[in-house]
Task: inverse folding
């Protein structure tokens, strides 16, 4: 396994755990600690997605949306994918 992809995966898992802990405190999505965990999760996911693609030529199974308009941050799906395929 590619070491960079594995490290990115471990960071993503840690970011998911921090996000969960911040959400579980229950102070809402305007809480600075939650917002920081939220941003870290997005950054960790993007780093993982990049490392996965660089190492193996595949993408992760998730998309990141912009908060303001629910627009995709990355390229939108081109319509060729079948969401029921998996």
Result:
């Amino acid at each position: 396994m590619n070491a960079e992809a594995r490290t990115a995966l471990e960071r993503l898992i840690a970011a998911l755990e921090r996000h969960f802990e911040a959400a579980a405190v229950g102070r809402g999505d305007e809480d600075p600690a939650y917002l920081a965990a939220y941003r870290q999760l997005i950054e960790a996911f993007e780093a993982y997605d990049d490392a996965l693609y660089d190492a193996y030529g595949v993408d992760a199974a998730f998309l990141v949306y912009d908060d303001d308009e629910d627009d995709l941050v990355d390229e939108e799906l081109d319509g060729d994918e079948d969401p029921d395929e998996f």
Remarks:
- The CA atoms of residues 30 and 65 lie 18 Å apart.
- Confidence is low (pLDDT under 50) at residues 74-80.
